[in-house]
Amino acid sequence: MKQLWMCLAVSMALSACDAPVLDTRAPAADATPPVSTASDFAMRAEPVAEGVYAIITPARDFPNPENKGWNSNSSFVITHEGVLVVDTGSSAAVGASLAGTIRGVTAQPIRWIVNTHGHGDHWLGSAALAGPKTEVIAGSKVRNRIRDELAYWVDLFDKMTNGATGKDAKAVLPTTVIDSRSTRNFGGVAVTFIPSGDSHSPGDLLVWLPEKKVLISGDVVYTDRAPVTFDGRVAQWIKFLREIEGLGVQKLIPGHGRVGDAADITRQREYFEMVWNAVEKGFEAGQADFEILPTIKAQAAKYRDSYPDLDKQIGRTVSHVYLQVEEIAF
Ligand SMILES: [Zn+2]
């Protein structure tokens, strides 16, 4: 599956990708490209609820030279016994900048880190945030990816950013694995971990703060970008979005995009349902994915305001859904 991420990512960066093979076109000539430093990122801790902050990147893309690898959101929760951080960015420098941003709000130690999923833009910064006593929490499939894929992600992002993310990220292996829904008290704050059933990617874990009505969704919910589906299971994703629509979310911190609310969950579920139903209908009529696409694009027009990159993503999503519809049919 990781080759697909790579293909997608490289195709977005370089505009062509016919096969799931690493595009090795070298980044521009500089022999020693500058590695970004923590001070390259203008981070701000945005208050979302009492003791809950989001650090939202302005980027709406994959890691690239312009965003220097800061392309994903992080968040943190301040408790009586320390800070819980969710997702740690794409590089050591991003992680260091996150640590500095958190320190600007609280002197409490970082006691817990949650990695919502296995894509490198959500865990490569962990070493800058974790101390010897920090407990790191993730799903077992995510722990395995963190164990196995450090070199892959470091190399990929280094290429995609022309060296800005550098090679100095270290993997911090999760010490606590969570694969089923459970609630735990962290320094007086109730936290419910909700696995998505591999909706967006294998091992996704969402963080729900029931007392604060805040959902930290990782990449399971997108707010102002079309969802990226290469590593997901869309039928399960629709079912799961329906489930979390029942939580009573007031604030949503996504893995990418602005802070949102329950309406973002419903929009994404309806968008996926529209795509799924149209693909199924076309498939049953014997059409290929590219033949179905124009009809779906017309039906998707109403999502364009919310998802400005819709036209870039929807063709891929139709292809992914087509394969999944086909799989069910046979
Ligand atoms: Zn992501």
CATH C-level category of the domain at 36-262: Alpha Beta
What's the mean pLDDT score? Answer: 90
Structural class: alpha/beta
Main beta-sheet strand count, sense and barrel state: 7 strands, mixed
The helix content is: 25-40%
Number of helices: 9
Strand content: 15-25%
CATH superfamily of the domain at 36-262: Ribonuclease Z/Hydroxyacylglutathione hydrolase-like
CATH architecture of the domain at 36-262: 4-Layer Sandwich
Low-confidence stretches: 7-31
SSE order: HEEEEHEHEHHEEEEEHEHHH
Q: Say which molecules are bound, naming each kind only once.
A: zinc ion
How many β strands by DSSP?
12
Descriptive account of the structure:
There is one protein chain. The protein has helices at 2-14, 92-103, 126-129, 140-148, 150-160, 234-245, 262-284, 289-299, 310-329; strands spanning 46-49, 52-55, 74-79, 82-86, 110-114, 135-138, 176-177, 182-186, 189-195, 205-209, 214-218, 251-254. It has 330 residues and is α/β, with parallel strands linked by helices. The protein has a domain at 36-262: Ribonuclease Z/Hydroxyacylglutathione hydrolase-like (Metallo-beta-lactamase, Chain A, 4-Layer Sandwich). The strands form two sheets. A seven-stranded mixed β-sheet has the order 1-2-3-4-5-6-7. A five-stranded mixed β-sheet has the order 8-9-10-11-12, with no helix packed on it. The protein is globular, with a radius of gyration of 19 Å. It binds zinc ion. Zinc ion binds at residues 72, 119, 121-122, 219, 255-256.
